[in-house]
């Protein structure tokens, strides 16, 4: 992939997983849809008019071929995708509980997700921003590579965002997971977490207290999503907030990925990623937060991760 292809691009790393979504309350009928925080975030960015490039290992099996076809169809760069003969990782989503909140049974061992060299370790020239998503950017070979990649990105003058997106079933116990997550936070300019993420990491603590601690580690912005109550952005000034539109929820799969895609797409459209991040204003953050809440709510009206097509400009 040439530097010209990567000019102003947002590089996305993180898992690509086949989500098996229940289509009835008893879980008798499932549909295989494309998912995973990395893939979902790249999808959202593309649909909001940004220029994402996805980097990671994809299987050559039937699901892997569907991922490639979807990336190409959405205009997402694939020059950093690596082929794997291992099968695609899958997640079995439980029948939904109250509020459409899913539970994921993840199956990762022996899959393309576990490829030791699946994630690049150096930021390619021309890209202005790195987005690192979930456990794929936190643990295992891909997590180690994502750490090197984040260091390379910051050295190159690119900005870095990190979506905590806790999946407790695949993380080590909290005491061992926390240092890994904090290491990634310390390398990031923008960190996104949900109230559920914060409750798992720091039970009983206020969101603002955790956010300010993360800022002490190095994060310049901490985004906290609050489900139907919208989101808040902790930065150097009084935190901007945005409400979430009221919608009929099909499920919340991919809502957080759509949110961060929307937020980054607005900053990208305004030239506020990379070196332009130093000039970000409260107005930029307010607009990005409002857009992110709107598109995340819209995504909840359809099953699976299916972000709307809206230009962030």
What does this structure look like?
This protein has 313 residues and is of the alpha/beta class. Helix content is 34%, strand content 21%. It has a single domain (13-299), classed as 3-Layer(aba) Sandwich (UDP-N-acetylmuramoyl-L-alanine:D-glutamate ligase). It is built from 9 helices and 13 strands. α2 crosses α8 (255-269) and α8 packs antiparallel against α9 (282-299). It starts with a helix and ends in a 14-residue tail after the last helix. GO terms for molecular function: ATP binding; fructokinase activity.
Brief summary of the model shown:
This protein has helices at residues 3-6, 37-47, 62-73, 140-155, 174-186, 195-201, 207-217, 255-269, 282-299; strands at 10-13, 17-22, 30-35, 52-59, 77-84, 90-93, 104-107, 129-133, 159-163, 190-194, 221-225, 231-234, 241-242. The chain contains nine helices and 13 strands.
């Amino acid at each position: 992939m040439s530097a010209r292809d990567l000019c102003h691009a947002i590089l996305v790393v993180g898992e690509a997983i086949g989500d098996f979504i229940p289509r009835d309350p008893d879980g008798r009928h499932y549909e295989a849809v494309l998912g995973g925080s990395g893939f979902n975030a790249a999808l959202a960015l593309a649909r909001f008019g940004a220029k994402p490039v996805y980097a990671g290992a994809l299987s050559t099996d039937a699901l892997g071929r569907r991922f490639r076809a979807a990336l190409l169809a959405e205009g997402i760069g694939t020059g950093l995708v690596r082929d794997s003969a291992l099968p695609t990782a899958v997640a079995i989503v439980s029948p939904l509980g109250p509020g459409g909140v899913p539970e994921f049974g993840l199956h990762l061992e022996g899959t393309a997700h576990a490829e030791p060299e699946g994630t690049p370790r150096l930021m390619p020239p021309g890209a202005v921003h790195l987005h690192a998503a979930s456990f794929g950017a936190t643990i295992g070979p891909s997590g180690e590579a994502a750490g090197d990649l984040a260091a390379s990105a910051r050295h190159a003058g690119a900005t870095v965002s990190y979506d905590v997106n806790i999946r407790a079933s695949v993380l080590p116990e909290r005491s061992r997971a926390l240092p890994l997550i904090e290491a990634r936070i310390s390398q990031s300019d923008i960190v996104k977490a949900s109230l559920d993420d914060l409750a798992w990491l720091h039970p009983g603590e206020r969101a603002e207290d955790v956010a300010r601690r993360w800022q002490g580690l190095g994060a310049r912005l901490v985004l906290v999503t609050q489900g139907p109550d919208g989101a808040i952005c902790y930065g150097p000034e009084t935190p901007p907030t945005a409400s979430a539109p009221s919608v009929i929820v099909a499920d919340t799969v991919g809502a957080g990925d759509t949110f961060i895609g929307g937020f980054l797409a607005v900053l990208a459209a305004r030239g506020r990623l990379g070196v332009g991040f130093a000039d970000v204003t409260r107005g930029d953050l307010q607009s990005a937060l409002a857009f992110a809440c709107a598109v995340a709510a819209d995504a909840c009206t359809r099953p699976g991760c299916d972000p709307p097509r809206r230009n962030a400009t």
